[in-house]
Amino acid sequence: MTKLTEWIVLAGLAFSLWITLLVDFFPIRISYEAKEVLWPMPVYALIAFGCYSLATIGYRVATFNDCLEASKSLKQEIKDAREDLTRKGYKFD
Amino acid sequence: MADKMDKYSILLPTYNERENLPLIVWLIVNAFSESGNDYEIIIIDDGSPDGTQEAAKQLEDIYGTEIIRLRPRPSKLGLGTAYIHGMQHARGNFIIIMDADLSHHPKFIPEFIRKQKEGNFDVVSGTRYIGSGGVFGWDLRRKLISRGANYLTQILLRPGASDLTGSFRLYKKDVLQCLVDACVSKGFIFQMEMIVRARQFGYTIGEVPITFVDRVYGESKLGGSEVVSFAKGLLYLFATT
């Protein structure tokens, strides 16, 4: 099963559960008040997911390591490499 | 304590890397002389006009033909075929792939090797996104696009690896062979396809945090066309894996 079909199956399941509860397909009684809450659920879910995503990405951007040390030590190593290679007979131009 | 049986072949595909090639080779030799593992460096130059091959020959004279192995190709033929070409000449049972432009540091190779042995992983992937990993030389915009694209990919593909577009990795040779045969994408999407297919085929993936030092100052490699090809690649993998 590809990721695409996984997503379609899951979305289909969630959607059918939601619609069957709304149209009283199951023999369980759902009060009018509960339906008031239930029908905009997909929108709530999307908003919640959007907020979670933005928060996650924001946090990860803010905590992305800058690696200043790695850049500094690389510069030093490049110097060392040039010296050592020149000693070994390498001709830089 | 190095395993006498294991040999590591480092594939260095190059194009106009005359400046960087001696430096990266020196750093690789350094890393391996400290770790004591058996290794070879296979330089696959795609007919660079800047004299990369002359530089490679000088290095061959210094370090010997057992360590430095030149396997050039006449013209620029792409990354996937460079790996195939390099693998045909590789004598190691492990293949290490990295960029020759010094954005990947060979000091991490011993950690890749340790990680691989720890869980007998089929693939060990360097990651900029977890632990001590990171990037030097990226502005906020670049970080935002990178993190956003990575998040979207994680949600859609759940690939079991945190860095999909990175290209600093260690593979068991037969695993790399199988993955290269199965992957059709080009450029950095190729790296993404390799790791996603690795998961699809049930290969185990270990991860090592790496630092990525972007030395191409003032030139953004991430333009509109990269975003478009990323989106296409993502959708292709979403529908086929």
Cα-to-Cα separation, first versus last residue of chain A:
56 Å
Give the SSE string of chain A.
Answer: HHHH
Total helix count of chain A?
Answer: 4
Question: What is the strand arrangement across the widest sheet of chain B?
Answer: 3-2-1-4-7-5-8
β-strand amount of chain B: 15-25%
What is the tally of beta strands of chain A?
0
Question: Biggest interface and which pair forms it?
Answer: A-B, 28 and 36 residues
The biggest sheet of chain A amounts to: none
Structural class of chain A: mainly alpha
Give your account of this protein's structure.
The complex is a heterodimer of chains A (93) and B (241). Helix content of chain A is 74%, strand content 0%. Chain A is built from four helices and no strands. The model of chain A has no long low-confidence stretch (mean pLDDT 92). Chain B is of the alpha/beta class. Chain B contains eight helices and nine strands. Chain B has helices at 21-35, 52-63, 79-89, 109-119, 140-157, 173-182, 187-200, 224-240; strands at residues 7-14, 38-45, 68-70, 94-97, 123-127, 134-136, 169-172, 205-209, 211-213. In chain B, the strands form two sheets. A seven-stranded mixed beta sheet of chain B has the order 3-2-1-4-7-5-8, sandwiched between helices. Chain B has a two-stranded parallel sheet with strand order 6-9. Chain B starts with 6 loop residues before the first strand and ends with a helix. The mean pLDDT of chain B is 92. Chain A binds chain B through residues 2-4, 7, 53, 56-57, 60-61, 64-68, 70-71, 74, 77-78, 81-82, 84-85, 88-92, and chain B through 22-23, 26-27, 58-59, 61-62, 102, 105, 129, 132-138, 140, 143-144, 147-148, 151, 155-158, 211-213, 237-241.
